[in-house]
Amino acid sequence: MGPPGAGKGTQAKRIIAKFDIPHISTGDMFREAIKEGTPLGKIAQSYINDGHLVPDDVTIGLVKERLSRDDCKKGYLLDGFPRTIPQAEALEKLTKEIDRPISYAIDIETPKAELIRRICGRRVCKVCGAPYHIETAKPKVDGICDICGGELVQRPDDNEEALTTRLSHYEESTKPLLVFYKNKGLLKTFDGMVGSDNLFVELCALLEGK
Ligand code: AP5
Question: pTM of the full predicted structure?
Answer without folding.
Answer: 0.94
